[in-house]
Q: What sequence folds into this?
């Protein structure tokens, strides 16, 4: 009879659909299991803002042109972080699930979210200053004359913390991050003060004083 479909046809159709569903579920479970065995990826970034309604922290995704990401907050202490605070976001490699948010802690010039690398900090800082500023500053002491109280920060460079990647470090300078190899040789730099999320730019004290004076003058003129 034209247009008639037997019950067996519908049964076979449902069976195929069930098989596809089981396969998809199995693939999902395999991905989750594989994720648990692989190392996580870490990115250095900064707090953008909080979404209290979703119990989440919003951060800037490096190398994205200003894209924002979110992580659920499981530690209530994180609510005390201020926008702009530098953090490490840990995510799974396959599905990109957020695993943890860790504030960066510093001991001397060495800053880390948990690793305990031992390197020659003075050597790394000196090479970074030479690469970024040339002969403008002979050492950290001369740099601090224009940036009083500034303390460089050294830490493992994110995005390459996976076990198959070579070791890289970043040295935080006032206006740039210098990226170095494991021997302290500077390879490249990243700009601070952009939407890339790397770091906040620090201006020389003289420029900050000029900005403060201009602001005070403008306020006086409005009165």
A:
């Amino acid at each position: 009879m034209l247009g008639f479909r037997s019950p067996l046809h519908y049964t076979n159709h449902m069976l195929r659909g069930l098989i596809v569903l089981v396969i998809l579920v199995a693939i999902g479970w395999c991905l989750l299991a594989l994720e648990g065995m692989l190392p996580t990826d870490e990115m250095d970034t900064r707090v953008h803002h909080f979404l209290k309604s979703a119990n989440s922290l919003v951060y800037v995704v490096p190398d994205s042109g200003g894209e924002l990401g979110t992580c659920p907050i499981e530690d209530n202490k994180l609510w005390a972080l201020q926008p702009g605070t530098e953090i490490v976001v840990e995510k799974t490699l396959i599905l990109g699930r957020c695993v943890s948010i860790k504030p960066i802690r510093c001991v001397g010039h060495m800053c880390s979210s948990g690793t305990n690398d031992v390197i020659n900090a003075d050597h790394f800082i000196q090479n970074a200053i030479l690469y970024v500023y040339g002969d403008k500053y002979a050492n950290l002491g001369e740099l601090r004359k224009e940036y009083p109280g500034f303390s460089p920060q050294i830490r493992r460079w994110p995005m390459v913390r996976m076990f198959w990647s070579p070791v890289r470090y970043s040295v935080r300078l006032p206006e740039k991050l210098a990226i170095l190899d494991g021997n302290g040789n500077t390879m490249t730099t990243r700009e601070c003060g952009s939407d890339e999320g790397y770091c906040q730019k620090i201006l020389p004290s003289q420029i900050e004083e000029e900005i403060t004076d201009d602001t005070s003058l403008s306020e006086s003129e409005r009165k």
